[in-house]
Amino acid sequence: MKLLVCFKVIPDLDQMAAEDYTVDERMQVDTSFVRTMWNCFDESGLEFGLRLCDEAEGLNLHLEKTALTVAGEQAELYLKTLNALKYDRTVRIDNEGRDIRFMPEGIAQEIAAYAKENPQDYIIMGRQAAPGNNGLTSYFTAATLGIPLISNVVDLHLLEDGRLWAVTEAGGSLYGQTAQSPAVLVIGNAVISKLRVPTLKDRMQYGKKNVDITGAEILKTYSGENPSGMAYINRERKGERMKATGQKAAEELGRWIKERRSM
Amino acid sequence: MSLLREEIVEELVKICGADAVVTDTEVLQESSYDRFRKYEGYNKVFTNPLPAAVVFVQDKKQVSEVLRFANANGINVVPRTGHSATEGGLETIVENSIVLDGSQMKKIINIDTYNMQATCECGVVLEDLENQVRELGYTTGHSPQSKPLAQMGGLVATRSIGQFSTMYGGIEDMLAGVEAVFPDGTITNIKAVPRRAAGPDIRHVVLGNEGALCFITEVTVKLYKYFPEYHVCQGYTLDDMITGIRIMRDVMTEGYKPSVARLYDAEDGKEHFSHFAPGKCVILFVTEGPEKVSKANAEGIREIVSKYSECTEVDHKLIETWFANLNWDAARIEEERKEVLETKNVCCTTEISANWSAVEEIYRICKERVVNEIPDITVFGAHASHCYSNGINLYFVYWYNVVDCAPEDEIKKYHLPIKKIICEETIKAGGSMCHHHGVGKHRVHWIDKEHGSALYIVKKLKAAFDPNGVMNIGTILPYKK
User: Fold this and answer.
1) Burial class, A223, CB count within 10 angstroms (exposed 0-12 / middle 13-18 / buried 19+)
2) Whether B387 contacts B251, CB under 8 Å
């Protein structure tokens, strides 16, 4: 069975101060000075890839896993980590510094082109990633390849026949289903959120393995959408302490809410 | 004859009131260990005997009465404030201990900007004090990573040090006066004066006592004028840790006074700087103070670093942003808990100090031995973050995957063997096995080698001030049943 896990390395926006959110003439916020991290949904997907492989060993099945990202050189360290975690193949489609924040369709076409050339049974993708968070890339990928998509996957297991058992979340309930291949599986708020850590010895032994780097041929000619404006969303919260207790507190709270509703 | 648990609780209630004495099992479990056993704690495995009670004292009189009671009845007392210790100093290793908690003594008593000192009770969180004095244009100069959690009593008791130590020094340089209560109930107040020569410096009996001699109730620290607008931040990448150590030595021995001087090797730096320095060491400096002083220090340091052609300067914003996100607060500990439980990947540290002539060999041999001898290591690195004219500290940072091992065996399989290598190699090279986290209960194995002939003084202090051996048993000196 062949498994392709797509991921994105993103800036850790928690490290940014409010005053850092200044939009430049290219409609970009400079995040180059903050550390980078796995996109959380993709991190779950990558760990699922490893766990499925562990399960495959127990079932005497062969699972070949590839990790792929559309990114610049900043993803190299992450790809080396995946090499050390024994991903069979790591691929970087080099975006050559292009601004691809608003190009989910173009990115999807790059992924689909790779998957056509290297047929996969399942493609695992995170639900969304900052900056942009459009949540569209996986849908475009499935549409381009003409294969089914299962959204909001929270757990994955390998069945004895080599197919996947996908648990999805909808409306607060969990649903289990057998995922026919080929399919795109979109990871939501999964039961696992962290990628395991390779040992120093594995990093030394496998981390130096080559990453396959290819040019982003489709994105080169892709125009995408140009943003017309960007604004910082102020999510500041404010607290007020009420001195009353019991019934009086409830009445005071009711008045407070009414006042704000009428504002 | 030793008292029953119920009798201890009953007496504590008499002294401090029922509200101040907590016997809830969950609280007792959480109070039986500190961050040394965080992996066990995260897994809800508690290997130490549970204390009889946690007592939240309100004033020095209560502290005095509780200590007098414990002393008379041979009950072990574990003093604590912010609960952020890392070396097992807060572990309750004998049955029916009393955890004496000063975290509710959180009054800032006086901020005296004319005499440049601030006095506060032991439970004041350092960050709260710092925020208050900053509003007035001053700083304590103390900024350990635990600033949002650590409280003044504990910071003095463990001989803490902060990130700006190269300019302001450790807590021993900041402490002007201190009030402490000894096991027989005696309340002592060491007055805050600029300097005196009235016999030995008795502040140092209290400083770093780790709750093994007395309970600190009040602290007076010095204040300094704060000029954030003149901070100058500079950072460089380089290939080699040893070169970095030599640059640090040049800066210090030439007489420059950065507030921050830090050097990370590539492994430790990977956790911090991979977005701009993958595979590289990073050396960084912050200078501060009045404009002319800060600029002169920055220029002098830049001149020294420029002599090393392998150093490449990086945008100062990279360093400033990293530095602004360095501290540990409660949210970060919760994040760590979740991550550790999911990945079984644990990070621990051991910090040492040594003279310039020894530090390079300590770094080399510890790295070589730990990587070769200890299984499942995922990161073994070090940084130097506190510099002196005669040497430097090394803060070894190691991560390992806990494999085929119950939570209660993690320390024996990984953490202690690593600590053993680092402590023994450091002492062998003439360094000190504890730079700023204290001895706690897990470095006592090497305390005789650490002090050599001077252990006599430590033992005499313990015998003189805690003759019944009720203060934090097993801390600084080993527990002998």
Assistant:
1) exposed
2) yes
Report pLDDT digits (tens) over A214-259. 999 999 888 777 778 877 777 777 787 778 888 998 998 898 888 8
* Domain covering B108-225 in this structure, CATH number: 3.30.465.10
**Is B214 labelled a binding residue?**
yes
Please determine, for residue A18, whether its predicted confidence score (pLDDT) is greater than 90.
no
Q: What gap in Å lies between CA A128 and CA B88, rounded to an integer?
A: 42
Fold for domain B5-103?
3.30.43
pLDDT higher than 90, residue B306: yes
Closest CA–CA distance from residue A80 to any residue of chain B (Å): 11
pLDDT at B1 over 70: no
Q: Under an 8 A CB cutoff, do B343 and A195 touch?
A: yes
Which of B321, B403, B414 best tests the A interface by mutation, with the highest count of A CBs <10 A? B321
Q: Using the structure block, give the residue that is written with the tokens 């912010």.
A: B82
Tell me if B278 and A77 make a contact (CB, 8 A cut-off). Answer: yes
Rounded to an integer, the average pLDDT of B425-442 is 98
**Could you tell me which CATH number the domain at B330-445 has?**
3.30.300.330
How far is the alpha carbon of A190 from chain B, nearest alpha carbon, in Å?
12
How many CB pairs below 8 Å do chains A and B form together?
58
**Residue whose entry in the numeric block shows the structure tokens 């050599």:** B452
Q: Are A254 and A131 in contact (CB under 8 A)?
A: no
The b/e string for B303-316 (b: 16+ C-beta within 10 A; e otherwise) is: ebbeebeebeebeb
User: CATH 3.30.465.10 residue ranges in chain B?
Assistant: 108-225
User: Looking at beta carbons, which residues of chain B come within 8 Å of A35?
Assistant: 272-275, 322
Confidence of residue B336 (pLDDT cuts 50, 70, 90): very high
pLDDT tens per residue across span A86-106: 999 999 999 988 888 889 999
B395 among known catalytic residues:
yes
Helix ranges (DSSP H) in A89-161: 104-117, 137-145
A2-261 homologous superfamily: HUPs (3.40.50.620)
Whether B345 sits inside 8 A of A196 (CB atoms) is yes
> What would be the CATH architecture of the domain defined by B229-324?
2-Layer Sandwich (3.30)
Chain B residue at shortest CA distance from A9: B275
A18 touches chain B (CB under 8 A): no
**Apex A205 CA angle, A200 and A209, nearest 5:** 120
Q: Is A19 on the interface with B (CB under 8 A)?
A: no
Provide mean pLDDT across the span A186-214. Answer: 94
pLDDT at A263: 67
Between A33, A192, A199, which is nearest B317 by CB?
A33
Q: What is the average pLDDT across B93-115?
A: 98
The pLDDT assigned to A234 comes to 75
CATH 3.30.300.330 spans which residues of chain B?
A: 330-445
Contact at CB, A199 and B325, closer than 8 angstroms: no
CB atoms within 10 A of CB A42: 26
Q: Of these residues, B226, B395, B398, B414, which one is catalytic?
A: B395
Q: Do B342 and A193 touch (CB under 8 A)?
A: yes
How far apart (Å, rounded) are the C-alpha atoms in residues A229 and A225? 12
Cβ–Cβ gap B275/A32 under 8 Å: yes
Kindly report the average pLDDT of chain B as a whole number: 97
pTM of the full structure:
0.92
